[in-house]
Amino acid sequence: MLAFALYAIPEFSGSIATQEAAINRTIIEYELNGQASQFVIDLDAYDPTAVISYTGSPTIADAVDVQQFYNIPGSASEFEEAVCTYIEDHGGTVISIETSSTV
To answer: With contact defined as beta carbons under 8 Å apart, do 89 and 81 qualify?
Structure first.
């Protein structure tokens, strides 16, 4: 049985982060409006193509309609693409995209 905890992260109003025993994570580092930041997409450890949570700008999440990507196979790459497109369309630059797995 996996330990599962949800908690709000104050600096990312409205965002939820998930902490599990094993998780796959994509971190998008970007610069927008002169500020460097990150948008983190957490993926289901058993289906790394399905998004289970995110941590990042609520403005970006609202703009890309984050709810449409939750727990849907194949949604992770679409979510990542939508976030990057939003950043670039608003004059920002995607600095890096890193995927990792934690146990």
So the answer is: no
